[in-house]
Amino acid sequence: MIYLCGDPHADTAELRRDCTEYAEAFCWEITAVIEDGAGAPPPPDRTGLRQAIEHVRSGGAGAVVTARRSMISPVAREYDQVTREIEKAGGFLHVMAAASGRPHSEPA
Known about the structure:
The chain is an alpha/beta fold.
């Protein structure tokens, strides 16, 4: 599944397309695309992120693919906590930009 987070008026179409192409290159089935469009409150306060983790927990997905690490959290402790929560739910988190080497990517 794909998870994106951005500002309320951000156009995520390109990032969604990039994540879709990236996942398909690994032959990963995209079972859902969830977007949080309320900025970036702390991870526990994001409805979409909670839905993504629950999607993994219920067996609907084995991985959460996101475009940038900051879409989970720019705070290392929060990012690590979400990563552990996804793993505990039975999946893994994959940050596309960290692996793609694309010019617009953020450091992991």
